[in-house]
């Protein structure tokens, strides 16, 4: 299958590209720079130059593909609302380009649901609707196209970790080193779900090959790790104490990531594992931390 991937050279996308190529698929990856294009080509995939704001280029690439995996996102936390609006515009244009074709359209989403007291499941609809909501409400928008001749699948990712990760856990590690202590908020009872990058890549390939239209799949290996334990693992690796940060001081201590670290982002993947035959086998988050995945320069 000829698959167009946005974010093909990124953290999750590069793992997905490797997985698809290893299983006989052709990959065309969106590249917004010469460096990204070279990385995509080095894997044996084809680079398509453009970015998420170049809607005509996106539509052309989508129209030429047999399936789409949309993983790119503007992670600009200084203008998160603007990033969401850009996301919605890009997803809308790509969906319109494949409407009526029956082609698979997989897109990255998340587990930030506002649900408390239990993990989010695949049966829970996204609470995010409209251009001004989180990620521009793109998951809800895409699943609506199941009745318009598209085969949409929502890929819900938790924290995706591994060697070379520069995401949320890397940011927390840098803050811990700067502050001289690994912090958590309040009692540290909020929880994050997690998955290793290799398991996330394999799940996307299985979802492309097996998931029915309108499905939500959860790339969750660990359903909910307490923030206090995450801080302790970071502190233990760095040789730093673990401290509680008062909720009213969280923004000053953690910056933008405090809003996420103080929120439950949990999920179950029981239905996904049964549907796709997917069993996570990669290292746990704490194993990655202990192994030096988030080691910082001296």
TrEMBL record:
> SUPFAM superfamilies of this UniProt entry?
NAD(P)-binding Rossmann-fold domains
What domain of life? Answer: Bacteria
Q: What Gene3D superfamilies would the database entry show?
A: NAD(P)-binding Rossmann-like Domain
- Specify the NAD-dependent epimerase/dehydratase domain's residue ranges: 3-213
Positions of the region Disordered?
116-136
Q: Which Pfam families match?
A: Epimerase (PF01370)
Signal peptide feature range: none
The UniProt entry, under CDD domains, shows: SDR_a7
Output this protein's name: SDR family oxidoreductase
Taxonomic path: Bacteria, Bacillati, Actinomycetota, Actinomycetes, Streptosporangiales
């Amino acid at each position: 299958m000829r698959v167009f991937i946005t974010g093909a050279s990124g953290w999750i996308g590069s793992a997905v590209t490797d997985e698809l190529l290893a299983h006989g698929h052709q990959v065309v990856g969106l590249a917004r720079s010469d460096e990204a294009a070279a990385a995509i080509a080095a894997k044996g995939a084809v680079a398509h130059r453009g970015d998420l704001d170049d809607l005509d280029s996106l539509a052309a690439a989508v129209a030429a593909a047999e399936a789409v995996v949309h993983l790119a996102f503007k992670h600009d936390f200084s203008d998160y609302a603007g990033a969401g609006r850009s996301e919605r515009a890009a997803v809308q244009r790509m969906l319109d380009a494949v409407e009526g074709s029956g082609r698979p359209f997989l897109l990255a989403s998340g587990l930030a649901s506002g649900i408390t007291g239990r993990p989010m499941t695949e049966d829970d609809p996204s609470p995010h609707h409209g251009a001004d909501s989180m990620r521009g409400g793109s998951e809800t928008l895409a699943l609506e196209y199941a009745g318009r001749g598209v085969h949409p699948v929502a890929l819900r990712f938790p924290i995706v970790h591994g060697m070379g990760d520069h995401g949320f856990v890397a940011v927390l590690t840098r803050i811990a080193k700067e502050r001289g202590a690994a912090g958590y908020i309040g009692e540290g009872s909020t929880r994050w779900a997690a998955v290793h990058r290799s398991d996330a890549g394999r799940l996307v390939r299985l979802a492309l090959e097996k998931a029915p239209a309108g499905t939500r799949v959860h790339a969750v290996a660990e359903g909910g790790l307490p923030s206090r334990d995450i801080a302790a693992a970071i502190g233990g690796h760095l040789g730093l104490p673990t401290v509680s940060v008062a909720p009213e001081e969280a923004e000053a201590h953690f910056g933008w990531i405090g809003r996420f670290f103080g929120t439950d982002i949990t999920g179950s993947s029981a239905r996904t594992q049964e549907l796709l035959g997917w069993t996570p086998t990669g290292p746990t988050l704490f194993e990655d931390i202990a192994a030096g995945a988030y080691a910082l320069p001296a």
